[in-house]
Amino acid sequence: MNREHISNLSSALRQVSISQDPQQAQQQSTANSNAQLQHLESSFGNQSQQTQSRITHFFKNQPEEGFTLFSHRSAPNGFKVAIVLSELGLEYNTIFLDFNAGEQRAPEFVSINPNARVPALIDHSNDNLSIWESGAIILYLSVLYGLQTISEQSQIMSWVFFQTSGHAPMIGQALHFRYFHTQQVPSAVQRYTDEVRRVYGVVEMALAERREALIMELDTENAAAYSAGTTPLSQSKFFDYPVWLVGERISIADLAFVPWNNVVDRIGIDIKQEFPEVYKWTKNMMRRPAVVRALRGEQ
């Protein structure tokens, strides 16, 4: 992947040194945790006239149309929603919450997201309807704009649930135990990294099957040679042609994976070498102008 395109999400994780040895990582994690705790205690002690004024002011003066996305600069799930909004060409504004100031616990925000986490979305054109959890948000947008048939929708929902329950949480846990946990737990790092690899194996197989079907359909001139095994599929002119998880066009089933694929190298997984179809799929998505804008935080 071309790292030059990335963005707020990558820069938020830039402070993490992949080459740190375990003892240094533990010391840094402990020091960071203590500093954050002291800062939080100080913040909540004084708090938060400024925080309350910013969040309160927004909720008292909500726009009449468009969308407001509540996110955080290091939250892949927030960028997931931004990517879908951007792909749809929708007008939206992002409020990046300040966790150190406790903005995620502001009563007004908790009223729209009882989990007090990001992302959350307000649809101002629909009576300020609020939706929380990234999977629910992108499914809402997908249904709202009728992006697929009923049969496609069921398949898309399967992939979205798979991404939100199996893909993102496993990468998140691997990142936590690798860089942020107060003690080194190698077995936890291994367990979550192995599970991420298993998940990518599922996606790799699905994309490979889609590619084989596409090549056999479009490259009819050489289909017999491919079937006989005398010519590898990699010789087809359609070998790098974009394929998607559901149907013939990109959908939220694909886009949901983008921001997490963008940080998976931080847990020692090289998708280019280990999962070539996932790599090509991700590269095709990362080159899309709307995806680039969303990852850069442009609206």
From TrEMBL:
Signal peptide: none annotated. Keywords: Nitrate assimilation. Residues 15-34 have a biased composition (Low complexity). Residues 65-149 form the GST N-terminal domain. One of its GO terms (molecular function) is transcription corepressor activity. Coiled coil: none annotated. GO terms for biological process: intracellular protein localization; nitrate assimilation; regulation of nitrogen utilization. It comes from the Eukaryota. InterPro entries: Glutathione-S-Trfase_C-like, Glutathione-S-Trfase_C_sf, Glutathione_S-Trfase, Glutathione_S-Trfase_N, GST_C, Thioredoxin-like_sf, Ure2. Residues 149-299 form the GST C-terminal domain. Pfam families: GST_C, GST_N. Residues 1-34 are annotated as: Disordered. Belongs to the GST superfamily. This is Ure2p in complex with S-P-Nitrobenzylglutathione.
